[in-house]
Amino acid sequence: MDIKIMELSSTKTFAIAKVLVLYFITFMPIESIAQLVYLKPTGGIQAVFSDITYGTSTNSNLSKGWNPSDDYWGLLIQYNFIPKWRVSTGICESDIGWIYKIKGNRYTVGSGTYAPIIQFPLNIDYMLRDNIRIGRLDKVDYRYLMIFNVYLTGGASFNWFKFDNYGAGSLSGGTGGFQNPIEIDEKLPNVLHRRGASIQAGIGFQFKSHDKDRLDIQLVYSQGLRKLVTVDVDYTINQTAYFLQMAARGSAFRITASYPIRLSKHRKSEE
Fold it and tell me: How many angstroms separate the CA atoms of 56 and 54, rounded?
């Protein structure tokens, strides 16, 4: 029931955001809109999270893992419709995956598997503070080492798990030899849904130079709203059999960098 309510809320968020975008596009001149539209190539790294939905081992033997080395790519279109607000949408390539660690008496074994997922985000940013200046370099020209804006970002994303292109599971930590044998038998993933949604929130830093937006850094957590994939795992510790099930929603924490490219420049006023 909670998941259905969250999915309904994300659907309403998309609908409200679309109405706002259509309103400003309809009632503002095309030239004014073009001056406020940016193309934003985006890239970054992320840590993908998963859930242990069922396990027969004790908490001391079983734990979730994470690996902050997955890449994240996207191409967004950003529209600054009023001074403190902006909206962006586009297409991104993220990952869905599951990582777990099994601990024996003396050794720990970890395994991780990943697959690509396509996301269509719709984000809204709100400016908290602008033109923060750090490190004054010149008292005459008022040059600073760093000038940036701080803003909050949030939104929703439609997720499309289209490709069954699973990366090879990486096993690390060793099996412990004869003193601590750990054996893992990971089954084929079970795809529950091809389509899902996620909500995200975070903070951003828009760096500036000569009164123009330059590098844009974001720290964002994205929470998947429903399970897309589950995987069953049989394993043994000292010849004792255990079982666990992992579930992936597409949740992740990511750090991204983008560079806004304005699609239209301001025209000089005619005298």
Answer: 7
**Angstrom distance (rounded) from CA 263 to CA 261:** 6
- Number of domains present in the structure of the chain: 1
271: in domain: no
Asked whether residue 267 is domain-assigned, the answer is no
Distance (Å, rounded) from C-alpha 128 to C-alpha 35?
23
- The answer to whether residue 268 sits within a structural domain is no
Q: pLDDT tens-digit profile of 208-259?
A: 887 788 899 999 999 999 999 999 988 888 888 888 899 999 999 999 999 9
269 lies in a domain? no
pTM surpassing 0.85? no
**Residue-range definition of the domain harbouring residue 54:** 2-262
Structure confidence by residue, pLDDT tens digits, 144-192: 778 899 999 999 999 998 777 676 544 444 444 445 578 888 888 899 9
